[in-house]
Specification:
Helices cover 27% and strands 23% of the residues.
Length: 631
């Protein structure tokens, strides 16, 4: 299991354990299962924390001493990035959480390396985004090579006016460590290391968990359980469920190597390179002078043999020679230190349903994809964000159980989207027939000179958040709740007016339709420049209200009044007013098609759920009720 550590943030007495450091690690070149037993000192030579070396000890909980099983509103199983995100988000919304992890360690090796812009924005809201960005390597440019020449390059965030980069590369153990430290600072999180779930029984009004510890088992009761315990989920097996999908017959080697290489922070992908003929190679830069290299090996490769340094290092040196030339250098290969290596296979699959009564599944416990496109951890973190605000609303009595059904529907849709992209990427990267290889190679040859062919090249369609157009929680483009029904696809065209209002003066342009994740933009408030999404708050709806200019006096005042009356009897929303002076470079108005009096309503997970040109208290109230599954 993935775990974490603390660097001086002390948890409340009786909740989480502080780290214990073990003896020196001999080597990290092994499988994840073997490497997780190794330990070492807690600092690197420069004095920084070595997050792979920290072990959290077991601590007895008061729940183990009571005459009857303790009952908690939410138990999260698994303290990896997804479980930690869910626990932190729930705690920030006032929900007490017990977070169980079956061991006391962080993940080993780079693992989930690429964290997307949307995930970084979620981490910002949780209070640890800046730390992740500061430590990580930001990038947005990718290069595609075919054999010995560059075919083309792309920029994933070509426009200005966003706080966060397209991606940040950061080893998974850093992300886990930062999230653990954040969790240890929240008194509503009871983080229990070495408390592993071994049994699950669903009851009418709770879930009964059997938990194993070094001192023996005990029983917990939870109103709801969030299973984030990975691809081999114990919780999933315990309730008799499984994932279905496709396993790919291929093997890949991950090699983390430390070297002083003067290459840019970009994603480089080779098809059929001369230094690794017939296969593919991916190169990424990480912090601490470490580079991540993925080598395709083929199904017949011997995993144990391929992990040996004498097999890996010559392959890496040949790659570095070619990369140096591609970067405009002279082909000189720097000194290389092998830090960690692993051989993996993968599957694209998911559970049939992410909700089973009071047990909800997120991350790899619910779905699994290939590593191409960085869709694993990113989609898992987005699962957690989608679920946390809904579960908080249900636990606190603000929404019915039906709201949790929308979690399953929305994130199953997102998982299917990720599975399609992941499967197509893998089929392109690893053609399974000669005719498929001919097509791929012809596409790559044409891509050097023709834009249409570049759209067909698939070295991993990189992670983007799902647009939940068909969500049952959406109102239409005028805040009406009668036009959109559960499961109904609303016609749209990105960048164009919604067909429903194509000839209507109240039509909206742009991509911020209901279901879309909100986009960021710079904003000036109280003389200081900041960012739009940083003004949202955990668990709260956000109303973006566009103020008057000379052409529309009084419309914004009416809109603000409608928002206030529409939320009467409900938790107050965050209200962000957009005056011309506040809209730096006009990007908020452009991205949200904001005119005087326009209101855009965001769910607590920053997805648009309604927008109006002429809002009324009744239409706003109806849209909020629909977003909470009351309607």
């Amino acid at each position: 299991m993935n775990t974490g550590m603390s660097t001086g943030i002390h948890a409340p007495t009786g909740t989480a354990s502080q780290p214990v450091i073990g003896a020196a690690r001999a080597a990290r070149i092994d499988s994840a299962a073997d490497a997780s037993t190794d330990t070492a000192g807690d600092t690197t030579p420069d004095g920084a924390i070595d997050y792979q070396q920290v072990v959290y000890p077991y601590r007895r909980s008061v729940d183990q001493d009571g005459p009857f099983p303790a009952r908690h509103p939410v138990v999260v199983v698994g303290a990896g990035p997804v479980g930690l995100t869910a626990a932190i988000d729930l705690a920030l919304q006032g929900v007490p959480v017990v977070l169980l992890n079956n061991d006391g360690r962080l993940s080993v090796g780079s693992r989930a390396l690429c964290f997307a812009k949307r995930t970084l924005e979620i981490f910002d809201r949780l209070g640890c985004g800046q730390r992740i960005v500061d430590k990580g390597v930001s990038w947005g440019v990718g290069r595609v090579f075919f054999r010995d020449e560059q075919v083309y390059q792309f920029d994933l965030l070509a426009e200005a006016g966003h706080q966060r980069p397209a991606f940040v590369n950061l080893q998974q153990y850093y992300v886990e460590g930062f999230l653990v430290e954040r969790a240890l600072g929240l008194p509503l999180i009871d983080l229990r290391w070495h408390h592993g779930v071994v049994g699950v029984e669903q009851r009418e009004d709770h879930v009964e968990l059997r938990v194993e510890t070094p001192e023996g088992p005990y029983t917990l009761h939870a109103a709801h359980v969030v299973a984030c315990d990975g691809s081999r989920s114990t919780v999933r097996r315990a309730i008799g469920q499984e994932s279905h999908g496709r396993t790919f017959k291929d093997r890949f080697l991950i090699a983390d190597v430390r070297m002083n290489a003067p290459f840019p922070a970009e994603r480089w992908f080779w098809f059929d390179p001369p230094f690794h003929p017939g296969q593919s190679v991916l190169l990424h830069r990480q912090p601490d002078g470490v580079w991540r290299i993925d080598f395709q090996l083929g199904w017949d490769a011997d995993p144990e043999l391929e992990k040996r340094p004498e097999r890996i290092l010559p392959r890496v040196r040949t790659l570095m020679h070619q990369a140096s030339i591609a970067a405009g250098g002279d082909g000189v290969v720097p000194d290389i230190e092998l830090v960690w290596a692993s051989v993996y296979t993968f599957s694209c699959m998911r559970m049939d349903s992410f909700r089973h009564g009071r047990v909800l599944f997120a991350g790899d416990a619910a779905h699994g994809v290939s590593p191409f496109g960085a869709r694993g951890a990113n989609s898992g973190v987005q699962d957690a964000e989608n679920l946390a605000w809904k579960l908080a609303a249900v636990v606190q009595g603000r929404a019915p159980q039906a709201l949790l059904d929308s979690y399953a529907r929305e994130r199953e849709f997102a998982a299917d989207e990720n599975l399609r992209h992941s499967s197509r990427s893998t089929d392109f990267i690893t053609p399974k027939s000669e005719i498929s290889r001919v097509f791929r190679d012809a596409t790559l040859t044409l891509a050097k000179d023709f834009a249409f062919a570049r759209r067909l090249v698939n070295s991993g369609r990189l992670s983007v958040p799902a647009v939940l157009t068909a969500s049952s929680l959406n109102a239409d483009d005028q805040g009406n709740v009668g036009d959109v029904r559960p499961g109904q696809e609303v016609p749209h065209a990105d960048g164009a007016a919604s067909p429903r209002h194509a000839n209507d003066a109240a039509a909206f342009d742009g991509a911020m339709r209901p279901g879309a994740p909100a986009v960021d933009a710079p904003i000036r408030r109280d003389g200081h420049e900041g960012w739009l999404l940083r003004l949202t708050r955990p668990g709260r709806f956000t109303a973006i209200v566009f103020e008057d200019d000379e052409a529309g006096a009084g419309t914004a005042a009416a809109a603000l009044s409608a928002v206030a009356q529409g939320f009467e009897g409900l938790e107050d929303p965050v209200v962000i007013t957009i005056a011309e002076a506040a809209d730096v470079d006009g990007l908020i108005r452009a991205r949200y098609d904001g005119r005087p009096g326009t209101v855009v309503l965001l769910r607590p997970d920053q997805h648009v759920c309604a927008r109006w040109r002429d809002p009324t208290p009744a239409s706003i109230c109806a849209a909020v009720r629909r977003a909470l599954a009351h309607a």
